[in-house]
Write a sequence for this structure.
């Protein structure tokens, strides 16, 4: 069975919305887009590139898939992400069976995310990495499908915006590793303790 690892950049008050640029995600009237600008350094790049060295697959919500892949496949400067994101096997969750996937090595999982991802997790022995995709993450953590988190915690308090963690049962986490970047970002890798997959109890 595969393990699901969620990689997210968040603020100190837990906001994950609109990290990259002002127009990235303005839902709910969010006006703080691009809050992550200026916090990337060689420490964070090294940490993130380590995660690209092993085998595994990636899992996206549709919005994040389109945004992330469009950005990195258009990047002109050398970086460790473009080639990896292009060639890795990607699974994209969507409620619609007609969703078009524009990038290579992409497979659509349409329907209820909790059921389709539960099936994917059972059918693979690979690690399954989620980037961003907050709505998807909240649905999966609600039914106990997330096994670990890699959080880049930025020293910012926004006071508004969509949080990574929604309403769900208590989860105890065990810190596996942490590093602090030169810009004050804490990168923390947590394992979820005593995870119980409750997606099998979903109504048909």
């Amino acid at each position: 069975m595969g393990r699901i690892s969620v990689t997210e950049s968040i603020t100190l008050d837990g906001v994950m919305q609109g990290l990259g640029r002002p127009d990235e995600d303005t839902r709910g009237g969010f006006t703080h887009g691009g809050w992550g600008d200026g916090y990337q350094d060689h420490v964070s790049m090294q940490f993130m590139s380590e995660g690209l060295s092993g085998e595994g697959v990636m899992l996206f919500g549709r919005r994040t898939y389109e945004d992330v892949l469009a950005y990195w496949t258009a990047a002109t400067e050398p970086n460790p992400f473009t080639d990896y994101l292009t060639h890795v096997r990607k699974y994209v969750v969507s409620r619609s069976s007609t969703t078009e996937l524009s990038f290579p090595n992409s497979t659509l999982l349409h329907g209820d995310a909790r059921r389709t991802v539960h099936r994917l997790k059972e059918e693979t022995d690979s690690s399954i990495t989620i980037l961003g995709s907050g709505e998807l993450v909240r649905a999966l953590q609600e039914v106990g499908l997330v096994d670990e988190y890699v959080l880049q915690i930025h020293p910012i308090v926004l006071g508004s915006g969509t949080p990574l963690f929604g309403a769900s049962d208590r989860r105890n986490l065990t810190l596996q590793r942490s590093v602090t970047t030169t810009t004050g970002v804490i990168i923390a890798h947590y394992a979820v303790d005593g995870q119980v997959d409750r997606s099998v109890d979903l109504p048909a």
Notes: The two ends are 22 Å apart (CA to CA). The beta strands are 3-11, 57-61, 90-94, 106-110, 127-131, 148-154, 173-180, 186-192. Helices lie at 42-50, 62-73, 82-87, 113-123, 134-142.
